[in-house]
């Protein structure tokens, strides 16, 4: 097992002697011993180090639809894991026990990139997902895992807020096969007040991924009543997606439930998600989905050519499959954007915790 502390490259020295982390737009200024807001990047021995390399808050085999990715090997299984910390401060975080953790003991499970890739292959996982907290903050580990996975023909998926600087962004997304980016809202007010960040770097990341990489992209927006669910904001967001990314980037609208520092807000009504999906489709988004609610129609995929049902979904369980072996509509031949196998996977809605310590290192 490699050391859990490794050197990083994206930083520079300021005139006052502090070191500025250049991984994300926060640009934390650190004196010796100090950590960035993400908590896992720390100034040690006059350098900025990643102090969580190779350590995880836990591993679990999930359906790919849970990430959520609906156009990326549907029905397949994915080995999911995260670490501790985050570079945003979202008050509604639904993985706060990991992303807000300040205890390194949270990182109870460990694996080298090579072991993680091998175990994923042994478990017949199509991919490995960096999730639960943002993989941007464990940039070096995620990239090394991705390289090890490619040697075993295992894909890698980043579930991220896309809050990353331009230079490390190039290296990071070159290593990823797919990404679901959390577009948290479409106002600077929301990003600043609720997340402690800014909107524009996320939009820049989205355009970069879609236009400059081969990384498959899907978007998710968690709709919070009274905060980011107004018709006007959804109109602006979905119109921007169609204009800047095109109509074929899938959008997922998911339901908020009270958590972390926003326990006084009620859960999102299913009707809100249906309304958001309708706005997106009226603005030209071809593939808009509802999530975290039971909605067979809103979670299924429909052909843009003839309207036929292509992929039926009941929560994370697939039903009817209307694609041919080439990923096209079996009725009219319209190609469905994404990555598909000849036949759908059948992993279903299972969630299987995995202890990597039970697997041999060699």
How many β strands by DSSP? Answer: 20
- In CATH, the topology of the largest domain is named TIM Barrel
The order of strands across the largest sheet is: 16-15-14-13-12-11-9-8-20
Low-confidence stretches: none
Report the average pLDDT across residues.
Answer: 93
How many helices? The count is 9
Strand content: 15-25%
CATH A-level architecture of the largest domain: Alpha-Beta Barrel
The biggest beta sheet is recorded as: 9 strands, mixed
How would you describe the overall organization of this protein?
The protein has 362 residues and is of the alpha/beta class. It folds into two domains: 45 residues, no CATH class; 258 residues, Alpha-Beta Barrel (TIM Barrel). Helix content is 25%, strand content 23%. The chain is built from nine helices and 20 strands. The chain has a nine-stranded mixed β-sheet with strand order 16-15-14-13-12-11-9-8-20. Strands 1-6-5 form a three-stranded antiparallel β-sheet, with no helix packed on it. Strand 15, helix 8 and strand 16 form a beta-alpha-beta unit. The radius of gyration is 20 Å and the shape is globular. The chain starts with 5 loop residues before the first strand and ends in an 8-residue tail after the last strand. The mean pLDDT is 93.
Question: Concise description?
Answer:
The protein is 25% helix and 23% strand. The protein is α/β, with parallel strands linked by helices.
List the helices and strands and how they pair.
Blueprint (H helix, E strand, L loop, with lengths): L5 E2 L3 E3 L5 E3 L7 E2 L10 E4 L2 E4 L4 E2 L1 E6 L13 E6 L13 H4 L9 E2 L2 H10 L4 E4 L8 H13 L3 E6 L5 H10 L2 E5 L5 H8 L4 H13 L3 E8 L7 H14 L6 E5 L14 H13 L5 E4 L4 H4 L1 E2 L6 E6 L2 E5 L30 E3 L8
Parallel strand pairs: 9-11, 11-12, 12-13, 13-14, 14-15, 15-16
Antiparallel strand pairs: 1-6, 2-3, 3-4, 5-6, 7-10, 8-9, 8-20, 17-18, 18-19
């Amino acid at each position: 097992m490699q050391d859990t502390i490794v050197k990083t490259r994206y930083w520079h020295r300021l005139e006052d002697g502090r070191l500025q982390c250049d991984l994300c737009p926060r640009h934390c200024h650190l004196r010796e011993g100090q950590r960035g807001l993400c908590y896992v990047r720390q100034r040690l021995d006059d350098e900025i180090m990643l102090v969580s390399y190779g350590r995880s808050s836990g591993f679990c085999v999930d359906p790919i639809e849970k990430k959520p990715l609906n156009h990326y090997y549907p029905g397949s299984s994915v080995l999911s894991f995260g670490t501790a910390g985050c570079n945003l401060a979202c008050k509604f975080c639904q993985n706060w026990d990991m992303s807000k953790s300040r205890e390194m003991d949270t990182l109870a499970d460990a694996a080298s990139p090579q072991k993680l890739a091998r175990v994923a292959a042994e478990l017949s996982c199509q991919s490995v997902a960096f999730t639960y907290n943002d993989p941007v903050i464990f940039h070096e580990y995620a990239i090394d895992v991705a390289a090890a996975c490619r040697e075993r023909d295992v894909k890698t998926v980043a579930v991220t807020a896309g809050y990353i600087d331009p230079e490390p962004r190039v290296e990071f997304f070159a290593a990823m096969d797919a990404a679901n980016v959390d577009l948290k809202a479409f106002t600077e007010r929301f990003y600043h007040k609720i997340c402690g960040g800014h909107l524009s770097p996320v939009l820049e990341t989205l355009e970069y991924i879609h236009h400059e990489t081969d990384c498959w992209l899907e978007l998710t927006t968690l709709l919070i009543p009274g905060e980011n669910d107004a018709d006007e904001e959804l109109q602006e967001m979905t119109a921007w997606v169609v204009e800047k990314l095109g109509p074929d980037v899938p959008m997922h609208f998911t339901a908020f439930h009270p958590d972390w520092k926003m326990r006084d807000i009620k859960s999102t009504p299913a009707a809100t998600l249906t309304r958001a999906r309708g706005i997106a489709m009226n603005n030209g988004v071809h593939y808009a989905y509802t999530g975290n609610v039971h909605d067979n129609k809103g979670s299924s995929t429909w052909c843009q050519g003839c309207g036929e049902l292509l992929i039926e979904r009941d929560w994370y369980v697939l039903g009817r499959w209307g694609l041919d072996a080439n990923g096209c509509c079996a009725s009219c031949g319209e190609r469905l954007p994404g990555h598909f196998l000849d036949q759908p996977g059948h992993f279903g809605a299972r969630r299987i915790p995995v202890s990597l310590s039970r697997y041999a290192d060699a």
